[in-house]
Amino acid sequence: MSLWSLFQAASQVGGVLLGDGSVVPSTLSLDTRTLQPGACFVALRAERDGHEFALQAVEKGATALLVDHPLDSDCPQLVVPDTLAALQRWGQARLEAVRPRIVYGVTGSVGKTSTKELLAAAVGGWKTPGNRNNTLGLPEALATLPEGLGAAVLEMGMSTPGEIRRLTEIAPLDAGLITLVGTAHIENFPAGQQGIAEAKGELVAGLNRGGLWAHLAADPWCRWIASQPWARHAEALAVGAGEPFGWEGVEALGAAGSAFRLRTPAGVIPVRLQLPGEHQIRNAALAAALAIRLGADPDRVAAGLGTATPEPGRGRLHARTAGGCLLDETYNASPDSILACARALLQLSGGEAVAVLGSMRELGGEASRIHRETGAALKGLGLTRLWAFGDFAGDYAEGFGPGVVAFPTFEALRDDAAGLSAIPSGARILVKGSRHWRAERVVDWFLAH
C-alpha cells in the first residue's frame, strides 16, 4: 500500500471530492510557511482561518486542499464539514491501515523529544518528526505513515487535561513511556501536580490491554499512576535503583556526550551516548528497558542509542571560538529541565559555568516563587553568573543573588553593555527559556559573534 490518493483519503474521511482524485499528496501541511511542494494543505479554523491562505498554499506547490467549503481554484479539493475532524480521522485511519508491529507513545514533563529520539534509535523505528506531538501535529504526521514498519514512536504532549486522551484515541498504543511528572503547565491544573499526573497518566489509560509502560522508579507520581484503577490493565516497568533495569557507572565525556552501563536482568551492557547530561542517561535507560523488555536485542538497542544526536534547542552543543562552549536547550523551559540542563553543563569542560535564561510560562500564581527557587537552585549547583530576561527575570535574580543581571526583553539583554557582550570568553553557557521568549535568539547572537 503506497501513500493514499485524494480519492482514497476521501473514502476514509468523507466529504465531497472536487477535481482529480488520483493526486497523491506527499504529506499534509497546516502552515504555508513550512509547506513543501506536493503537500495537501489543510485549512484549519483557529486564531486565523486557514482558508485565507489556501491560494497561497497552491502558489507554493500544494497539490491538494482539505477545506470546509469549495474554493475558487483548479487545485483538487476535498470538502468536508470539519477540517480538524477530517485531519484527525485521516491520521487515525492511516495508522489503522498500515499499523506497525509495535506503536510506542512517549510523554513527560521534560525530555519527551529527546527520549522519543532515543527510543526510535533503540528500536530502529519511525518517529514523529520534530515536535508534532499535539492533536494537530500527530495526525498530520500519521497521515503519510509508511507501511511495513516494525515500530513507530509517537511523542505525545499536553498543556491541558484530555489532550493525551484524545491522542491515544487517534493512535492507540501498545507500549508507553513517561519520562517524569513535573510542574510544566501547572497553571492549567487546579489540582496541582496530581492534576498533571492524571493528564500524563492518560497515556497509560490509553494503552491497549496488556500493554507495557516504563517510568523512573524514583518518580512518586509515576508510582501513583501505576496504583490507579484505570492503569491496572497495563503493566508498569520501573527503571532505576533497586529494579532489574537501571543504570550505573555514569561517565561524563564532555562534548563527546556521556557513557553508562545499562543494568538488565540478563546482565550489564555498556552504552555510549552523543547527548551530554545524566538526565539523558535516565532517558536512555528508560528507552532501553522498554525496548529490551518487549523483545529487542540488547546489543542492537545499545548500538542504536549511540546513534541518537541532539536536535537544535534540545541539547545541541556548540564550541565557542574564544574557548568554552554553549549548550543550546532553548526549545522550552520548566524548573525540572533547567536544573537538569545546568547539571549537564557542569559536566562539560571550560571556564566558569553561567546561564542565559528566558522566563518560564504557565506557572500560575506560583510563578514568582518558582523563579526565585530556580534561581537559588542554580546558584546552589555551582553556576557563578546568570543573565535573565523576561517578565520574571527579577525573580530569577532575587533567588540567584550576587552575580545576576536581569533584563525585561531580549533586545535589552542583547544591546546593554552588561548583557550578552559581557559574558566572558571561555565560559560554559547554558541557554534556555520558554517558547514565548524565543531564547534561540541568544544562540543565534553567539553564533554570529
From TrEMBL:
* Pathway in which this enzyme or protein is active: Cell wall biogenesis; peptidoglycan biosynthesis
**What GO biological process terms does the UniProt entry carry, in alphabetical order?**
cell division; cell wall organization; peptidoglycan biosynthetic process; regulation of cell shape
Its main subcellular localisation, reduced to a broad class, is: cytoplasm
Where does the source fall among the domains of life? Bacteria
Domain (Mur ligase central): give its ranges: 106-291
EC number of this enzyme = 6.3.2.10
Which EC class does it fall in?
Answer: ligase
Annotated ATP binding sites: 108-114
Mur ligase C-terminal domain: residues covered: 323-435
The record's keywords, sorted A to Z, are: ATP-binding, Cell cycle, Cell division, Cell shape, Cell wall biogenesis/degradation, Cytoplasm, Ligase, Nucleotide-binding, Peptidoglycan synthesis
One Pfam family, short name please?
Mur_ligase_M
Q: Name one GO cellular component term.
A: cytoplasm
Q: What does this protein do?
A: Involved in cell wall formation. Catalyzes the final step in the synthesis of UDP-N-acetylmuramoyl-pentapeptide, the precursor of murein.
The protein in question is named: UDP-N-acetylmuramoyl-tripeptide--D-alanyl-D-alanine ligase
